[in-house]
């Protein structure tokens, strides 16, 4: 059980009142059910304790400010944190799946040139409670349907907020917590090499995706500032470490940008770079952001996919979801946040500690 680390404030209230140890577990289970936003709703706790908790620690740390619903069933949630920061979360329904895409930072300092979040800069990292609660709120919103998958692909670079992100995922995975299988949880990183290795050594079987976006060093530096810090060989060495240590599939994200990274030569270089039975190439057409890039056409994307498969790669082309409400990958920018006094989207070295 992760209750002590996850809700230390609740633990303190219980300690002050000299409550029995199982009360912490009851409070933790109630929060992790996703169905509780107020201590008064936790009928397992005695009335006086509910009142004490309500007076001292909030059951919900995020205020749900708005929900948008897209034509394809995708939903986007706008949350306000206790200190007034805004973040976004997305729920994507597909056949029997209900996937939530959660954020780990307010903005992102990595500055990828095609990403709306990247244009915001970074305000701060979220704590584990704020990260996990996004999944709780979506659970409540879609009930009685159940959330089946969590992807950490919203706002922010999760590996710049490693400890809090991992704690949130462990709570989501915890059999006494949210109880979602580790293999139904995936994290995407822009490629922080040391953290990829650390993630490989975690005991839980979470999935990992690495945002690659081009097999060429020079091009990668132009669209992803992180490439100036870690070269592609360094990145691939961490990728190899990951698959050797976990024996799990490793996903490489590849956003197709017209005339930038969608040519034949890219497929050919990818076929060499990703020549491993556990590597999988996840193609996605660029979703419009106000960054000057253009999406590769559907037909060119399909050609790219077919050529990649012809050259022996395991590859898929993911459809974009929720575009009419700007909920697709890379579009989370919290309208109105831009221009606010955040730190600039430049070197990630200056971002918050993990
Ligand atoms: N920061 C992490 C996870 C969040 S972004 C990362 O970069 O991996 C999730 C994915 O969306 C990444 O692969 C990212 O490169 C991609 N992405 C960003 N902007 C996009 C856009 N406008 N269109 C399509 N994909 C985009
Ligand atoms: Fe940050 Fe990921 Fe966007 Fe890059 S693509 S700016 S790492 S959120």
Features:
binds iron/sulfur cluster, 354 residues, binds S-adenosyl-L-homocysteine, 2 domains, alpha/beta, TIM Barrel, two-stranded antiparallel ribbon
Main sheet specs: 10 strands, mixed
**What is the number of strand segments?**
12
CATH class of the largest domain: Alpha Beta
Q: In which range does the helix fraction lie? A: 25-40%
Describe this structure in words.
It is a single chain. The protein is of the alpha/beta class and 354 residues long. It has 2 domains: 1-60, no CATH class; 70-338, Aldolase class I (TIM Barrel). 32% of the residues lie in helices and 19% in strands. The strands form 2 sheets. It has a 10-stranded mixed beta sheet with strand order 1-2-3-4-7-8-9-10-11-12. A two-stranded antiparallel sheet has the order 5-6. Strand 1 (63-69) and strand 2 form a beta hairpin. The two termini are 22 Å apart. Residues 341-354 have low confidence and may be disordered. Bound molecules: S-adenosyl-L-homocysteine (SAH) and iron/sulfur cluster (SF4). The site of S-adenosyl-L-homocysteine (SAH) has 17 residues, from strand 8 and strand 10.
Task: Give a quick rundown of the structure.
This protein is α/β, with parallel strands linked by helices.
Helix/strand layout:
Layout lengths: L2 H4 L1 H9 L5 H11 L14 H10 L6 E7 L5 E6 L5 E9 L2 E5 L3 E4 L12 E5 L2 H15 L6 E4 L9 H12 L11 E5 L3 H8 L6 E5 L5 H7 L8 H15 L3 E7 L7 H10 L5 E7 L12 H13 L4 E4 L36
Parallel strand pairs: 4-7, 7-8, 8-9, 9-10, 10-11, 11-12
Antiparallel strand pairs: 1-2, 2-3, 3-4, 5-6
Helix pairs in contact: 5-6, 7-9
Bound molecules: S-adenosyl-L-homocysteine (SAH) and iron/sulfur cluster.
